[in-house]
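Retro notes, structure queue

What went well: the backlog is down to a handful. What didn't: a couple of records were mislabeled last round, so from now on we paste the full input next to the output in the thread. Example, using DUF3046 domain-containing protein from Rhodococcus aetherivorans:
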Amino acid sequence: MAQVRLTEFHECVRNEFGQLRGDALLRDHVLLSLGGRTAAAAIEAGREPREVWRALCEEFDVPPARR
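Corresponding output:
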């Protein structure tokens, strides 16, 4: 998949982390690999959802099969 749409990104986050935890991670958890931004701030700043998803997966050790 060359590009992940924002709706797909949010679906992946909900499926992996749950609705409440996923929402909290997006707005509160700072990812150094994204320049010290939260996932939400990184997307708002123009980072691709796929890149942000990969950063979350690496940060939280999501198994490759679920990435």
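Agreed that this is the format going forward. Reviewer comment attached to the example: The chain has one domain: 6-61.
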